[in-house]
Specification:
There is one protein chain. The chain is of the alpha/beta class. The protein has one domain: Rossmann fold (3-Layer(aba) Sandwich), CATH 3.40.50. The protein contains ten helices and twelve strands. It has helices at residues 11-23, 83-88, 90-110, 144-157, 186-197, 215-226, 250-260, 284-289, 299-313, 327-336, and strands at 2-6, 28-33, 54-57, 73-76, 115-121, 165-171, 173-175, 199-202, 209-214, 236-241, 247-249, 265-268. Strands 3-2-1-4-5-6-10 form a seven-stranded parallel β-sheet, with helices on both faces. Strands 7-9-11 form a three-stranded mixed β-sheet. Helix 4 links the parallel strand 5 (115-121) and strand 6 (165-171). Helix 3 packs parallel to helix 4. The radius of gyration is 19 Å and the shape is globular. The protein starts with a strand and ends in a 13-residue tail after the last helix. The model has no long low-confidence stretch (mean pLDDT 95).
Length: 349
């Protein structure tokens, strides 16, 4: 089997390549990535790309169709990956996350690709009331990033994909250690704050709900989707990927970190305006379809792995908000240095 992973040099892709090889050493994996964060290794002893058959460096907006020749599966991770980047690069986010995603899926279908796995997000549920959100419940995307994810699903639902099995994994909020760590994720941020300064500052009143999933469990869900057959969920499937037990309030996450990092102070802004991004998610469909692949990494285990990772990194950056491990900061540094333009295209410098 030959798998193409777009965005393989990012936070999730760096874990996924090693995971896939550990599960099935015989598969061929090709990577396609812009390389924005390729140099940002965090405590890794070797490059994840050593697992690959081939690595392409390129813009997903310009992916060459011939790359898809003889590809059996596409795992599409490439995206402008959070709300803050989407706000600063709104049109680029739509172009990369939606238009390019739809184009690549169409090309994959035309080239006879059997399975297409799309990394989507539960953030499309936005502000919710009532019980946990199921896949058929109305969505309420509040950000450009969230709108790009539901927009891609909507577009591809209307297209004839020639029998290609399409799986949109609506992931819970990512967390956990990676060879290319991100600190612009709530749990990762809290652990980094505890390690570097001994203080976690919760900008909201702590009440918003977030479902979490460790990055290793994201890889586990992708592994399932790579081999999913139409009789297990249909040819076109959008499914919440996570587990019911991992719906947490933000204050719960801060307290969980505090328990593992002694003497950490937690400050919660009780007077903060309401954070509209609050949603609980129902993961029962995923459990029924992928019972052998439901998340296994607990919250405490994710925190423990992050702590070990920070120790390997010798992380002690008190200026956390300026850290290169926040993806928006890295893009700004590339732009300020003249390496990227505002359209997020390399300038060859």
């Amino acid at each position: 089997m030959r798998i193409l992973i777009t965005g393989n040099m990012g936070y999730v892709g760096s874990v996924l390549t090693r995971f896939l090889k550990s599960k099935n050493p015989g598969i061929e994996i090709m990577g396609y990535d812009s390389g924005f964060y390729g140099h940002s290794l965090t405590g890794a002893e070797s490059m994840p790309e050593a697992c690959l058959t081939r690595q392409y460096i390129g813009d997903v907006r310009e992916l060459t169709p011939a790359i898809l020749d003889e590809v059996d599966v596409v795992v599409h991770l490439a995206a402008i990956s959070n709300d803050s980047m989407g706000k600063e690069f709104e049109s680029v986010t739509t172009a990369i996350n939606r238009a390019a995603s739809v184009r690549i899926a169409k090309l994959a279908a035309a080239h006879g690709v059997g399975n297409f796995v799309f990394a989507s997000s539960c953030s499309m549920y936005g502000a919710t009331e009532g019980g946990p959100r199921r896949e058929k419940d109305p969505t309420n995307p509040l950000t450009v990033y969230a709108r790009s994810k539901i927009g891609t699903e909507d577009d591809l639902r209307q297209i004839n994909l020639n029998g290609m099995v399409f799986t949109s994994l609506r992931f819970a909020t990512a967390c956990g250690m990676s060879d290319r760590l991100r600190l612009d994720l709530v749990l990762n941020d809290f652990v980094a704050c505890a390690v570097s300064s001994g203080e976690i500052t919760v900008l909201s009143d702590g009440s918003p709900w977030r479902p979490l999933i460790d990055v290793e469990d994201m890889a586990r869900a992708i592994y399932w989707a790579i081999w999913r057959r139409p009789e297990n969920g249909g040819t076109w499937l959008a499914v919440n990927a996570g587990r019911d037990e991992s719906n947490y309030q933000v204050s719960d996450l801060a307290e969980a970190v505090q328990r593992q990092v002694p003497n950490t102070k937690v400050s919660i802004n009780a007077d903060a305006p309401p954070d509209k991004r609050s949603y609980k998610v129902d993961f029962s469909l995923f459990k029924s379809l992928a019972s052998d692949f439901i998340p296994q990494v607990s919250l405490d285990q994710s925190i423990g792995r992050l702590l070990k990772g920070f120790e390997r990194m010798r992380f002690a950056d008190r200026e956390l908000r300026n850290s290169p491990y926040l993806r928006l900061n890295m893009l700004r540094r590339h732009i300020d240095a003249g390496r990227l333009n505002r359209d997020l295209r390399w300038l060859g410098v």
